[in-house]
Design goal:
Layout (H helix, E strand, L loop, with lengths): L2 E6 L2 H8 L5 E4 L3 E6 L2 E7 L4 H15 L3 E10 L9 E9 L21 E2 L2 H8 L7 E8 L7 H9 L3 E5 L2 H11 L3 E9 L5 H24 L3
Parallel strand pairs: 1-4, 1-5, 5-10, 6-8, 8-9
Antiparallel strand pairs: 2-3, 3-4, 5-9, 6-7, 6-10
């Protein structure tokens, strides 16, 4: 039986994953498990930010021994062709604000670690087939501990011109998955376009885009 680990940062992103499904609550308000067509799915609300998501991923790998890890929920759009509601899938993941360039590392690279972390090719190929609910973009995602809007978005677009989206968890999850040798991919929906009004856009769109991400993830799980 395939073991799938899903990680979402917030309750708003977790709720649509569970909607209409029978699930067992393993830890109150934080961890659930459900089955779909012979696949066991463990859903963890990991908390916002790099440290919360990395810690939750490491603990979940130890406890649940997943065969696949998927990060889901919302993200801010950076790519010029990205629109609110689009699905973004990470082919590679970088840190938005790591700077050890004084020692010869690339911007965004943690010393002695890869410059970026790859999405799993098999999972990416399965997602590429999914055009059920709007546009699907596959490319680079950057992650940091800051909500991206306004001036910060301009800086990230300059530093990472190929980046499609920004979030606060996926690269940390990708790093832990890479270290544990567990296939990983991020499947998120765009909640805002990182403008100065991104905060209010996020609040207005989060329920819809969280549902879009959840639906895309369940379609992916159904193909595993």
């Amino acid at each position: 039986m395939t073991q799938v680990l899903l990680l979402a940062a917030m309750a708003e992103e977790t709720a649509p994953v569970l909607a209409g499904r029978v699930a067992d609550e393993l830890e109150p308000g934080r961890v659930w498990t459900a089955e779909q067509d012979g696949t066991t799915v463990t859903l963890v609300t990991c908390g916002i930010g790099l440290v919360n998501s990395a810690a939750a991923t490491a603990v979940a790998i130890e406890r649940y021994r997943p065969d696949v890890i998927i990060s889901l929920g919302s993200a801010g759009g950076l790519g010029k062709d990205v629109r609110v509601g689009d699905i973004i899938v990470g082919r590679s993941y970088r840190y938005a604000d790591a700077d050890a360039t004084a020692f010869g590392y690339e911007y965004g690279q943690i010393p002695s670690m890869p410059a970026s972390y790859p999405g799993d090719e098999r999972l990416l190929s399965l997602v590429e087939e999914d055009h059920v609910d709007g546009a699907v973009h596959i490319g680079d995602i950057v992650s940091g501990n800051s909500f991206v809007a306004g001036e910060l978005a301009l800086q990230l677009r300059e530093r990472y011109p190929e980046a499609l989206a920004a979030d606060m968890e996926s690269t940390a999850i990708a790093q832990v998955a890479w270290a544990a040798k567990v296939p990983f991919v991020c499947v998120r929906s765009i909640s805002d376009l990182c403008t100065p009004q991104a905060g209010s856009d996020f609040k207005g769109n989060i329920d819809d885009v969280a549902a879009r991400s959840a639906a895309a993830v369940w379609r992916l799980v159904g193909k595993l």
